[in-house]
């Protein structure tokens, strides 16, 4: 029994160390002494932000809307550039697909990020209505590129309500898009 407890502690420590080292590549200084001395309020997520503590689609549920999960951090510059894109898409396409932001540097979200094998941020993971991953992109992804990706995946983003205008930026994605058809 003692061996199991020690092994479990070692696995948890190794997981946290791996996640910490992966995400320190995005924003130098993460995990430094100055970061650990930051006030707790500065580290806390805003009340409107969703904190994810367990993986999506571990247990298949009734069909819902497709979802895009944005794995990132409030301290990452590329992730910060994605914030207005995500907010605009939430306003303009909330009836077509869901968008969820997961701050991978929050301890309670690190296991979730690891369950999706997140190695760089920002990463956008596209899930079908059954919760199965169908595509992902790593790096900045413009609003128009996200909408194009949904169209490629068969989601009718053009049938949305005209509640909010779509900001079609001319910025091109800087990341790599991968399809997940081999599962």
Describe the fold and architecture.
The chain has helices at residues 2-23, 33-36, 40-43, 77-93, 110-115, 143-152, and strands spanning 67-72, 98-103, 123-127, 133-138, 176-179. Helices cover 34% and strands 15% of the residues. The protein contains 6 helices and 5 strands, in the order αααβαβαββαβ. It has a 5-stranded mixed sheet with strand order 2-1-3-4-5, covered by helices on one side. Residues 7-25, 27-50, 53-61 and 162-173 have low confidence and may be disordered. With 183 residues, it is an alpha+beta fold. A hairpin with a 5-residue loop joins strand 3 and strand 4.
List keywords for this structure.
183 residues; alpha+beta; Glutaredoxin; 5-stranded mixed beta sheet; 6 helices; globular
Structure annotation, total helices = 6
What do we call the CATH homologous superfamily? Glutaredoxin
Q: What is the CATH topology assignment?
A: Glutaredoxin
Question: Averaging pLDDT over every residue, what do you get?
Answer: 71
* Second-tier CATH architecture: 3-Layer(aba) Sandwich
Q: How large is the radius of gyration?
A: 18 Å
Count of domains: 1
Helix content: 25-40%
What percentage of amino acids are in beta strands?
A: 5-15%
Structural class: alpha+beta
Distance between the termini: 37 Å
Please give the largest β-sheet. 5 strands, mixed
CATH class: Alpha Beta
* Sheet with the most strands: spatial strand order: 2-1-3-4-5
Query: How would you describe the shape?
Result: globular
- Unreliable parts: 7-25, 27-50, 53-61, 162-173
Order of helices and strands: HHHEHEHEEHE
Number of strands: 5
